[in-house]
Write a structure and sequence with these properties.
Elements: H1 14-17, E1 18-19, E2 34-40, H2 42-45, H3 49-60, E3 65-71, H4 77-82, H5 84-91, E4 97-101, H6 104-108, H7 118-132, E5 137-141, H8 160-178, E6 181-183, H9 185-193, H10 213-228, E7 237-238, H11 243-258, E8 287-290, E9 298-302, E10 309-316, E11 321-328, E12 335-339, E13 349-356, E14 359-366
Parallel strand pairs: 2-3, 2-4, 4-5, 5-6
Antiparallel strand pairs: 1-7, 8-9, 9-12, 10-11, 10-13, 13-14
Length: 369
């Protein structure tokens, strides 16, 4: 694990707690590890999220990442932007990636909490990061909503899912305007939290807004797949998690990223493709959806070999089927389906799966309010 750039009262002995899976992992690259800096608050600090990410990288891609951190409990990105120590840390290395962790309440309700401004802090930190090294990729850590949303406040009815909708909408807008990559941590949480029967359903700490270990591990899965384009299947996991729970979190985290990387503004082969050319590129050039995110309707286009039976399935993240279309491939000719849901799914997310013969590929669709 790389040197900690902010002292902590507690540091779990991560590598004594990890149980390493039997998967073969990604073959180690000859290139030097990509240097990654995590800047955030207790959302990053809890359960040693940078250490969980480092453990995955060491096991899955031959130490392709060297993870550092600058965290301070209770701080927002605006605090980091104004802090000389954080600024010095940014200038201390030629970082390949800097991850900036957002604040749930300020992202969801910027009109109620205009100060400190998430957008202004992102803009200032971006300028500082690119001044230090213009090739650095900047990843915005899209956080999760509070477990009860704002329902605890008098007169407020926004639950977790409504609060997460606001976080998603503003994060997409900020990422577009500032040209940032998104790590959709909060959307992976939504994927799990929509099914209360899952054993890993509870991701929040008892304080209802910090992550418990399951939540932090899921965040690490999202960050790893965002950075490398790779699945986390077979990654190590803390001994206090069962293998079943860990596998479910790995699947949810990686699939949220990999099913539709264009939503999250992720380069085709991941932010580190040029530094780690062996990482696998995303596939699916013959399967296009747009606009995505969408408001009222989305156009789905695909093509397949002449005579190949194609089945398009749209479902909610809870597995409820909302649309099925079957078409026959016509070679290079594009086939088209328009999806216009009558009612919006909880969380606004759908899974669109295209089956072409024995081949399956999926895309996530996001419907904005």
């Amino acid at each position: 694990m790389a040197q900690i750039l902010y002292p902590r009262n507690l540091r779990p002995l991560l590598f004594l707690l990890l149980m390493f899976g039997a998967g073969t992992g990604i073959r180690a690259q000859s290139a030097a590890p990509a240097k990654v800096l995590c800047i955030g608050s207790s959302y990053t600090n809890f359960n040693d999220l940078p250490g969980l990410l480092q453990g995955m990288a060491d096991n899955r891609c031959g130490a392709c990442l060297e993870v550092h951190e600058r965290t301070h409990n209770g701080w927002f990105l605006a605090d980091h932007a104004a802090d000389e120590t954080t600024r010095a840390v940014i200038r201390s290395e030629a970082w390949d990636v800097v991850i900036l962790q957002g604040s749930s309440i300020h992202l969801a309700y910027p009109f109620y909490f205009p100060e400190p401004s998430v957008f202004d802090a992102l803009e200032e930190l971006k300028a500082l990061i690119l001044e230090n090294r213009s090739q650095t990729r900047i990843v915005f850590f899209l956080p999760w909503a509070w477990e009860e949303g704002l329902t605890f406040a008098s007169g407020r009815t926004e639950d977790y899912f409504r609060m997460q909708d606001r976080i998603l909408s503003n994060s997409l807008r900020y990422a577009s305007e500032l040209d940032l990559i998104l790590a959709p941590v909060g959307m992976a949480w939504t994927r799990i939290l929509q099914d209360p029967d899952l054993p890993e359903h509870y991701l929040h700490d008892p304080d209802l807004h910090h992550p418990n270990l399951r939540g932090s591990y899921l965040a690490a899965c999202v960050l790893f797949s965002t950075l490398t384009g790779e699945s986390t299947e077979g990654s190590p996991f803390p001994a206090s998690l069962t293998g079943e729970v860990a596998r479910s979190l790995q699947e949810a985290g990686s699939n949220t990223v990999r099913e539709n990387p264009e939503i999250w503004r992720i380069p085709e082969a991941g932010p580190l493709a040029s530094e780690n050319p062996g990482t696998r590129a995303y596939s699916g050039a013959d399967f296009i959806v747009g606009p995505n995110p969408f408001r009222n309707n989305v156009r789905i286009q695909f093509r397949a070999g002449a005579g190949v039976l194609c089945r398009l399935e749209l479902s909610t993240l809870l597995g409820q089927t909302v649309c099925v279309e079957e078409r026959t491939g016509r070679g290079s000719e594009w086939l088209e389906v328009e999806f216009a849901p009558e009612t919006r799914a909880c969380g606004g997310m759908y899974l669109c799966t295209l089956v072409r013969g024995s081949h399956r590929i999926a895309r996530s669709l996001v419907q904005l309010k």
